[in-house]
Write a structure and sequence with these properties.
Largest sheet of chain A: 6 strands, antiparallel
Structural class of chain B: alpha+beta
Distance between the termini of chain A: 19 Å
Helix content of chain A: 10-25%
Distance between the termini of chain B: 43 Å
CATH architecture of chain A: Beta Barrel
Number of helices of chain B: 9
Radius of gyration of chain A: 13 Å
CATH superfamily of chain A: RNA polymerase II/Efflux pump adaptor protein, barrel-sandwich hybrid domain
Structural class of chain A: alpha+beta
CATH architecture of the largest domain in chain B: 2-Layer Sandwich
Strand order of the largest sheet of chain A: 1-2-3-9-8-5
Strand order of the largest sheet of chain B: 10-11-12-9-3-13
CATH topology of chain A: OB fold (Dihydrolipoamide Acetyltransferase, E2P)
Radius of gyration of chain B: 20 Å
CATH superfamily of the largest domain in chain B: Probable tRNA modification gtpase trme, domain 1
Oligomer: heterodimer
CATH class of the largest domain in chain B: Alpha Beta
Largest sheet of chain B: 6 strands, mixed
Number of strands of chain A: 9
CATH class of chain A: Mainly Beta
Number of helices of chain A: 4
Number of strands of chain B: 21
Order of helices and strands of chain A: EEEHEEEEEHHEH
Order of helices and strands of chain B: HEEHEEHEEEHEEHHEEEHEHHEEEEEEEE
Strand content of chain A: 25-35%
Largest interface: A-B, 11 and 16 residues
Shape of chain A: globular
CATH topology of the largest domain in chain B: Gyrase A, domain 2
């Protein structure tokens, strides 16, 4: 768990950058559930997405899993390094980001879970 | 309550991720499914397949009974220890299950059926055996461990002292009894190796002995990618009771040449064959999965099994598509909202450590 990040109950993490954009990835818990990553399909740059909208897909050998926009905004960048090395998500889910967004409202981040609240979500799924 | 094999606590101790597999609590992987896959292709690994059901057919009418029960011809079994892969069909020609029959002697044939279908299979067999001199013994007292990979046989010989003499000369698809071990040179990976049936109480000893010789435990995840690369059907996915075996890549196992009657034969002879099971190699980026629709110039089809192939480093699939489509042809697969290009290929995709594509 990384205390400086915000989380969703659908296992995305989000980080506010100094330039006002928000970087998004999937959590370590999510990668451990999915197993060996083999394919990442990121959204097109320039696409506008609403909070909760499906905007990326990560696929492991086992299964495909949708990634949802944690907040509303525009996709401004995507991590093309993952095209050739999706396993970087398994190696370090918190540095292998998927895409960056320009938020419609930066304050939307406040509605996301903090590390402790996300940990509670993970714990409740284990039961 | 999920059923557990005699190796359940061994899996838990080894850090297995355990999942519900057809009512059995089974290891999916022990860390990395891809690492386990490569381990089997390049060295060797061991699988707990004790959930599969061993049946012993005893009695003087065994061979006659099997001639009628299954689609392949048990008269191919002449030498003691020889094994035969076959489908067992219903009256409509659909596949009740696929199984392996080991011929030991005229009053003993051993059959291994799938876990999820075992109960149904036994009821079906008992009904067909009614009135015949055949007894079907359900060997729930046996466990089964598969040791697969280029070094598998050597490791098993080290783990079971004395077993080498009894099994060194076994050709592929033959089995021999060694003490309380029934050792078959069969498997579900496309690699050399053995499947060992043994008393449940001895399973943990053999498992631990193999592990201490460096044989890695392999979960059902890698078992699936290995069998798919090897072009082997999975019951419930590549075929079921609605599937014509002649449209499921099983024509080589269906004997329609002999005069012999068997369950489902009339139905098969009266049905036109419109589809084939073909291999697909994804050209575009993505991952093929079961049930994705396939478009071809000759009509529609469907993926029955798809995955990312660790050996090829790209996605592969088995698909039921119109029989007119040939290897080398290009088809389109609908993956979410996209149409991806895939090439039709002859399978198996990989065996004996190597890509065949």
């Amino acid at each position: 768990m990384n205390a400086n990040l915000k989380y969703t109950a659908s296992h995305e993490w989000a980080r506010l950058e100094a330039d006002g954009t928000v970087t998004v990835g999937i959590t370590d818990h999510a990668q451990s559930l999915l197993g060996d990553m083999v394919y990442v399909e990121n959204p097109e740059i320039g696409r506008k997405v609403a909070k909760g909208e499906e905007c990326a897909v990560v696929e492991s050998v086992k299964a495909a899993s949708d990634v949802y926009a944690p907040i509303s905004g525009e996709i401004v960048d995507k991590n093309e390094e993952l095209d050739g090395s999706p396993e970087k998500i398994n190696e370090d889910a918190f540095s292998a980001w998927l895409f960056r967004m320009k938020p419609d409202n930066a304050s939307d981040l406040d509605s996301l879970l903090d590390a402790a609240a996300y940990q509670a979500v993970v714990d409740s799924e284990a039961h | 309550m999920l059923k557990r094999t005699p190796l359940y606590s061994a899996h838990a101790d080894m850090g297995a991720k355990l999942v519900d597999f057809g009512g059995w609590e089974m290891p999916l992987h022990y860390g990395s499914q891809v690492d386990e896959h490569h381990k089997v292709r390049n060295d060797c690994g061991m699988f707990d397949v004790s959930h599969m059901q061993v049946l012993d057919l005893k009695g003087e009418d065994c061979r006659n009974f099997l001639r009628y029960l299954v689609a392949n011809n048990v008269d191919k079994l002449k030498e003691s220890g020889k094994a035969l892969y076959s489908a067992m069909l219903n009256r409509e020609g659909g596949v009740v299950d696929d199984l392996i029959i080991y011929y030991m002697n005229e009053s003993w044939f051993r059959i291994v059926v799938n876990a999820g279908t075992a109960e149904k299979d036994i009821a079906w067999m008992q009904e067909k055996a009614n009135g015949r001199a055949v007894d079907i013994a359900i060997r729930s007292d046996l466990a089964m461990i598969a040791v697969q990979g280029p070094n598998a046989r050597e490791r098993l010989w080290q783990a079971i002292p004395g077993s080498k003499d009894a099994t060194e000369s076994l050709k592929p698809f033959y089995a021999a009894q060694y003490g309380s071990y029934f050792i078959a040179r069969t498997g579900y990976t496309g690699e050399d190796g053995f499947e060992v049936m043994l008393p449940s109480d001895d399973a943990e000893n053999l498992w631990n002995a193999l592990n201490s010789l460096g044989v890695a435990p392999i979960g059902l995840g890698a078992r699936d990618t290995l069998r798919l690369e090897a072009g082997m059907n999975l019951y419930g996915q590549d075929m079921d009771e609605q599937t014509n075996p002649l449209e499921a890549g099983l024509a080589w196992t269906v004997d329609l040449k002999s005069e012999r009657d068997f369950v489902g034969k009339d139905a098969l002879l009266s049905k036109p064959v419109k589809f084939q099971l073909a291999g697909l190699l994804l050209v575009d980026r993505g991952v093929l999965r079961s049930h994705q629709p396939v478009s071809t110039p000759c009509g529609e089809g469907e993926i029955t099994s798809g995955t990312f192939s660790p050996t090829l480093g790209q996605s592969i699939a088995l698909a039921r598509i119109p029989k007119e489509i040939l290897p080398g042809d290009e088809v389109r697969v609908t993956v979410r909202d996209k149409q991806l290009r895939a090439k039709v290929v002859k399978y198996p995709f990989a065996r004996n450590g190597k890509s065949l594509i």
